[in-house]
Please model this.
Amino acid sequence: MARQMTGAKMVVQALKDQGVDTVFGYPGGAVLPIYDEVFQQNDIKHVLVRHEQGAVHAAEGYARSTGKPGVVLVTSGPGATNAVTGLADALLDSIPLVVLTGQVPTFMIGSDGFQEADTVGITRPCTKHNWLVKETNALSPTLHEAFHVATTGRPGPVLIDIPKDVQFATGTYTAPVKGGSKRYQPQVKGDMQAITALVDALETAKKPIFYTGGGVINSGDAASQLLRELVDATGFPITSTLMGLGAYPASGKNWLGMLGMHGLYEANMAMHGCDLMINIGARFDDRITGRTDAFSPHSIKAHIDIDPSSINKVIHVDIPIVGDVAHVLEDMLKVWKSRGRKTNADGLAKWWKQIEEWKAVNCLTYKNSDKIIKPQYALQRLEALTKRHDRYITTEVGQHQMWAAQFLHFDDPNRWMTSGGLGTMGYGFPASIGVQMAHPDALVINVAGEASWLMNMQEMGTAMQYRLPVKQFILNNERLGMVRQWQQLLHGERYSSSWSEALPDFVKLAEAFGAKGIQCKDPADLEDAIMEMINYDGPVIFDCLVEKHENCFPMIPSGEPHNKMLLGDASTKDAIKEGGAVLV
Amino acid sequence: MSALQIKKGSTKHSAYNLRPTFSDVIETHTLAVLVDNEAGVLARVIGLFSGRGYNIDSLTVAEVDHTGHLSRITIVTRGTPQVIEQIKAQLGRIVPVHRVHDLTVEGPSVERELALLKVSGAGDKRVEALRLADIFRANVVDSTLDSFVFEITGAPEKIDAFADLMRPLGLIEMARTGVAALSRGSNS
Ligand SMILES: Cc1ncc(C[n+]2csc(CCOP(=O)(O)OP(=O)(O)O)c2C)c(N)n1
Ligand SMILES: [Mg+2]
Model:
């Protein structure tokens, strides 16, 4: 149905037609016509953030916790450039976002006008696709295509740059077409010959492992269900990347825990020693593989990924399958069942025996204290006191993030929001706001480091304004802890600029915003303090003073393979060789 | 294990049409990329190459289907088989890219480039330049008493050879179009 309306109205209409209920944004001259339309309707809620980076991370939190695209509206120039970090973050973690930016009017483009920036040029390498719309008639098809591209295939952020005259002018609005744009239709069904080859391998493998990633979660609930069925039916062990936590339940009996640089000993050892590795929706990231030429040297490797460019990018695989995880798993289960559900029972029994020995190492053991709160202990208490809640966790970036991944357990997908690929400090707080907007009654906790948290602390204003009871659980070690750890291990204990100096009084800071502040430094008080945080109806900043020099283990040193993992401080001396030191 | 016995290239839609990627040998490939002729598409392609550290030896682009607004970008690039496969997969990810053809592996193809060369000189050198131009089937498209502009078409190596010969004879400027390439036979 074609209707005449202004470009600004089209934007709001298209958002409604795409089922959008929440937009995160910040106004400015070049988007005023759109804000005027937002003002005159009640279907879409607009959340005024305090910095455009916050808007994008909030939209990421919204997207990651709902499976729907997150939507952002910001102005031209500085509005757009402030959004860039969030775009790069969403691109690396495959989070679907639609970001709308205002632009100077078409007739001023190229004149270095006020708040003009080459937004499509700047964001081209950090979006999945972007558009500059120069005619009002092109606006609605572009908006609909943007949603299609963001959410189809490997999801990602897209951006539409809309000059102000295009917003004012009147044109024809067209409704979304079913099935989305014809020109972008990634393949979702896997190749049956390859799937059959994988089933062949699965039936005979003696030491198989599932290595799963964020792609399972992006594929949707059906993918997680099918994965659970497959794991339980085959009895194979399963590990996951940081991004994939929750797709298979942490309470499931085949769960080995997270793998990778700070992954669990049993998960990494099993990856190293397996004879069949089934990668489902993960991308052989360098945090996972360690040294690539010594990565899982004796395994047949299968890789299921919707993005053909992920295949053979880092690790050469033997059975590549391009397709959507849910589609491929469904076909795979069908073939495997029809052939009699065979596995190599003897081999598997021995494999599990070996894995149990690795598990017995208890790699997450740490030395607790009754004088000072150990960060691991704080997270164990948090886990115990919140796991029965309808709980969502976001994190910042650093040691606390890795400890959170190790010590918090996720039984469902979409419950864990963290910046994996880009490792963006400042992600967690705004992300928690986005999550809470999508799940108003849930318990939303951002596990933070004091340094990361300060990077987007202005969003306290947003949390207060929208009465979002987000809990900021800050593991305050007064250090850029992860940097300090690397300096200790790699740079002769020269702690160059890794102290968090001149920290604010977090309790007073909370109070200055009208929120609640809690400080805790005695392990004996911790449980009561956490309960106080949970029970408070409103935003809380929880300043948890923890051991300042705790290191995060296990750790695969840079440039080493999985079986050279460090388990504790005793094993760290000279662990990182010269070659490894150049790696990040 | 049977998994490894699937013939590469046996299915159209899986990554099995990737070639084995173990080799360290640097290969030169000519890629034909069919794209929507829309603003920024060339920047996307070039940005991909610079952002990911791939080489471009030659690049040509022009609209080839005016009603469908399709352009054809011909890229000559170098890399190990693994890098070449990555380049093709990354190109295929770009939303306005319709198809990526690797003319180097998809069977025989023809490659042509056009160049203009300005050669200045007098006496014997001038006569020799003209004689060589004739051998290479280069045309004179401009002439003054002490210079020629030659137009030459051919495979890039032929143009290289011609330019090498012209250099001692007074080559002062050259413009090349970059490679245009098509597969042989009746299929598109
Ligand atoms: C925006 C940004 N800048 C710098 C870094 C590098 N970096 C990684 S972890 C880290 C320290 C984080 O400190 P904190 O938030 O206190 O967490 P901790 O490691 O102490 O738990 C830094 C500086 C980063 N990841 N992101
Ligand atoms: Mg810290």
